[in-house]
Each structure stands twice: as C-alpha cells, then as structure tokens.
Amino acid sequence: NYLLGVGRADCTGPVAEIPLMGYANPDQVGGGLLTRLYSRAFIVADLDDSRRVVFVSADIGMVSQRLRLEVLKKLKSKYGELYQQDNVILSGTHTHSGPGGYFQYTLFWITSKGLIRPSLNAIVNGIVKSIDIAHQNMKRGRLFINRGTVENSQINRSPFSYLKNPASERSRYSSDTDKEMVMLKMVDGSGQDLGLISWFAVHPVSMNNTNRLVNSDNMGYASYLFEQEKNKGMLPGEGSFVAAFASSNLGDVSPNTKGPFCVNTGESCNNPQSTCPVGGATMCMAMGPGNDMFDSTRIIGQNIYFKARELYENASQEVTGPLSSAHQWVNMSDVSVELNATHTVKTCKPALGHSFAAGTIDGVGALNFTQGSVEGDPFWDEIRDQLLGEPSNETKACHKPKPILFSTGEMTRPHPWHPDIVDVQIVAIGSLAIVAVPGEFTTMSGRRLREAVKREFDSHGTPRMDVVIAGLCNVYTHYITTYEEYQVQRYEAASTIYGPHTLSAYIQLYRGLARAIATNTVQDLPRGPEPPAFNIGDMTLVPPLTVDRVLANKMFGDVLQEVRQQYRAREVAEVTFVGANPRSSAENAIEHNFLTVERYASTSDSWRVIQNDASWDTRFYWTKGLLGRSNVTIEWHIPHGTEPGIYRIRYFGHCKKKMSNNHAVFIPFEGASSAFEITAL
C-alpha cells in the first residue's frame, strides 16, 4: 500500500512560428495543432509519508537541463525540500512534433532559433501544474506491474550497427528491438482506476518531418485512446484517469515498419549507408504501416494502446516495499571507467561526428552527408575550421574512429554548446527500479544497462528487481550506443557525444546508484558538481509577435470559406476563418482552446461541445498572410459512428492590437461556421 496521486496538465505552448523539436530541420516550423501536449505526473509516497517519489512523462521531444532546473526551482519555492533532484524524474516522450526552443546549450539553438521563453514557460508551468494536481489528490492505493510483447510496431533503423555486437550476446535475444512493454497500474484503496505508466521503446516519429501541426505522435495517441476509454463522456484532456506512455531505450528503434525506401525510385535502401543509387542519402526514407503519416500514427498508437489495455486488465503482480531514490551529477566529459582489473579508459569532451548531419531514415539531414562515415570530408572540415575552429588533437584521438564534425565540448560562445554535467538517477518503488537516463540508449545499450543494474541489486541482497529504463530524462545528451556499434559510426554512434566508452561509463555510474539503494547508503553518494544555469535573455530568431490585421471589410472570426450543408461519416468538414496569430493566444491565455465541434440538441435548444482542439479528429491550420493578416482553417475528420444530426464548428482566437499609448493588448474573438447536417450512411 502506498499514497498515490496522478495529475495531467496542458504544456502545449505556442503552436505557430516556433521550430518543432526533433528532426533538426529548421524549415519545420509550427503552423497549427493536431493534438495538445500534456505533462502527466505520478506521485508515490509511503503510508507514513516519510518518503515520496515523482515520475513525470511530458509530451515533448526531451527534457532539457534548463527545463529541469526551472521546474525544480519552482517546486522548491512551493514545497520546500519535498521534491528535489533526487526524487523527481522528468521524462520526455520524444515526440518530434512539439515546439522547441527550451534549451540553454548553443547547439540546440541552431535548429530551434535560440531560447524561446513562451515555449520554455509553457512546458515548465505544465509540468509543475501536473505535479500540483497529483500532490493535491493523494490517496491510499495499490500498484500492480505487468509486462508483455508488442508486435508489428518497431524496426531497428540501424541493423548494420546492431550486427556489430558480439554474436554470443545477440544470440540471447530473439529480436534486434526490445518488444517488451512494462506497465505500472495504479488503483485507489477501493480498487477504482487512477492511472498507469507504460514504458516501451519506439521513436515517436510516425509523423514525419514534413508535418507542421503540433502533436504528441504515436505515444501520445496511445495516451489519448486510454484516457478517452477511462474518462467516459469527457472531452480530450479532461477527466481524472491519467495514462502515460513513456519512452525507453528507443535509440535505434523506428515505428516506420515498412522500412527504408528510395522515395524517387521505390527500391529498398536498407544498406549500411542508407543511401539511394539516384539522389544519395537524402532520398532514403522509412515508411510507416499506414497510407499517410496520420494513418501510421494511428496504427502504431493503437497497437501500443491495445497491448497496454490487455496488460492493465490482467495485472495481478502487486508492487510492494520501500521507496528510495538516488541521484548524482556527473561531469561526463571526464569519467574514468575500469573495464577490468588492468584496463582503465576515459570518456571524452562532447563532440558530434559527420554522420550526425546525415540524420536517419526517419528524417534525413539537409546536406549530402551519409551515415557510416568513418572518414571526415575535407570540404566540410575546412568550413568548420574557419567558422567554429578545429577540434583539438586530444579530442580527435579520444573520439576515434568518429570523424568530428562539431567539437562542441570545445565551443563556448555565446555559451557552451553541449552539457558536461549530466544527471544519473534511479528511483525504486518496491521491486520496480526506474533507471532515468539522459538521452537515447540503443536497444543493446539498454539491455546491457538493465542487466548490469539488475545484477548489482542481486549481488547486494535485493533479488528479483524489475528494472525499467525511462528515456530522455533530466538533460539531453543525444545517443548512447555500445562500443561495438560506435565503431561503424552511423547516426546514433556519431551522436554518442562523450566518445566510445560512454555506455561503459553510464553502466559504472548506474551500478553505483543501484548499490547505494540496495545497501541503504544513498546518503553517502557524492552529489557531484552542480549544473550551470546560463544567464540568457530572450535570444531568439523567432519573429516578434506583430499586430494582427484584417482586410478593410472583414472582422476577426469571419468565415471566408464555408462548410458544405451536408456530410457523411468518414468525410471531412472544413471551414476557413479570418484568423489571428495563435501565438497571441498562447502568450495570453492559460489552456486556450482554439476550436470546438458542437452538436445541436433540439430538446434544450442548445449546442453541446463534442470535440475540442485536443481531439484526434480535429486539425487546426494557421496560414500567415501579408502585413499581419492570416487565415485559420479547421478540419473535422468525421469519425465512423458519429451520430446523425446538426453540427457546427467554432473558432476562438486573440488578436494583438496597439493602443494609442503604444501599449499592446490582446482581444479575444470568436467565429462559427454555418450549421451543417451529418446524415446516416
């Protein structure tokens, strides 16, 4: 028995003009909304409330160090010492369709146009609010764990790297991805459902890098389905049941199960360089199981949801026992690793290899780089040396065989380009150990880490621990491949920033945390060097928010393109309005909802909201025009089984106006489509 609390809060932020975080494609800028992003928080406390732990999964690309530091600061001012760096895990789902700009290290500024305060604030406030809600709703309850296999939802996107791992190790596993889902079910004292956390390793990249709508991708869709199922009759984002689908060791795992094809010729490009005969690497793209990216997101999300529902319904193994948490800050650019009694190696200052710029089959790079480069390219190296400076001989030697593209650990202007100080953290809830890792472990890296942590618990008198990896936690340090995978320098290896011994260093560190928990000596762990918080104002290339304008004879919210009078299920109702920049809403209204779909109830002569902008079936598009003018198009993809009747679509926005004293104000407005009829098939 424990005290349990769950909470969910919106963390969407601005849905327009902000670069989306994940594919590192500067052209992929937000232009609307498919589904809202949420932070989901879970608090577990002892019955005597002597100890508590927090797990947060947020629908964002990854947790950045800046984000974590600001969340911890807010928690401290609210709750004192209750929630601290050791007992709070912040994890990102790794959707590639959320707003970026919440990083303090310079490398991430290049594609996300600097530090974008409204984006950072939305995530910080959403995470804190979800924890507040969980904190206010603590009640007695029980935890159950279950695990099972998810089929047809992943492929390894760097199989040629995976095959470099020892044959004796590979022969112990039936697949080159981890197909196991681990699920933690939460119920209250009377057996009422509270929520769940699921961990499963797959990239949320069913939505590809042409997408401009903010959304939570396949993992978010699984959450959406589970929460809609349990919060019957509620709109998306409402209701008390919270279902988090959290990330795990997804480094080399893609949901694009048809595999890589040349988009120009249709032939397979499943080769060590992921390159096509015509057009090279830029033509090689993996395809999902659906007929477009929305359909693929739905299929993969549904697969994950179905398995989670089955595991939830059949969960019978109760989790009991004490709570503990261990955390250290570590300078990852300078860790000595004892490989064996006679051999010690070191990690390196952070650096990215040439293949980092190639991207992956889920999203290729913009230039003609290919994966698997173990040689540099004199052309790009010369440009790099001129612009950014040449890597030192020491860093070059340390990272071998990686040819260094960016020696980020030696680049400090205007601030350091990559973190040195990294969080390592384990939270134990009875027999469940949650290993919070600061990046993307590949399949085999994750297996080695889990095994090492489990062995450490075993050998110190805590057998039968369930060890789960929570990905993209606390600070982002790109990828972590095995030493063997590192040698072939595909994208994941080129992005293993602390060098070939990164994984060995983490295994050594996490074993230390596991040992401290098992032997009850957490208080003796050194805290390590505190991470820096750089003093950054608004450093951004995002255009300033200008005044919204309309044509002389128009008003905000006027309909420009009307709906049809009649639709059937599976058709798309579409309406276009005179719009305003959605950023005006994001920066001025907490939890702003941009749209509703409403059904007319003749008995009460009133309209009832049946969908909002968090709904999977609605799409909100913003199109920027000239001189501050813009349009908004709302689509409702009418689902199968929609009741026949009279419906309408409404739009809610804010327009920015300058007053005579040069002070800007934001004025709310709304628009509505004509009523339309949905007829039976």
Automatic annotation (TrEMBL):
Active site: 254
GO molecular function: metal ion binding; N-acylsphingosine amidohydrolase activity
Catalytic activity, as annotated: an N-acylsphing-4-enine + H2O = sphing-4-enine + a fatty acid
Every Neutral/alkaline non-lysosomal ceramidase C-terminal domain range: 511-678
Domain of life: Eukaryota
GO cellular component terms listed in the entry, alphabetical order: cytoplasm; extracellular region; plasma membrane
Enzyme Commission number: 3.5.1.23
Cofactor(s) of this protein: Zn(2+)
GO biological process, alphabetically ordered: ceramide catabolic process; long-chain fatty acid biosynthetic process; sphingosine biosynthetic process
Residues annotated as domain Neutral/alkaline non-lysosomal ceramidase N-terminal: 2-508
Residues that hold Zn(2+) according to the record: 94, 203, 440, 479
Pfam families: Ceramidase_alk (PF04734), Ceramidse_alk_C (PF17048)
EC class: hydrolase
The entry's keywords: Hydrolase, Lipid metabolism, Metal-binding, Sphingolipid metabolism, Zinc
Details of cofactor binding: Binds 1 zinc ion per subunit.
Record family assignment: Belongs to the neutral ceramidase family.
Name this protein carries in UniProt: Neutral ceramidase
Native source organism of the sequence: Thalassarche chlororhynchos (Atlantic yellow-nosed albatross)
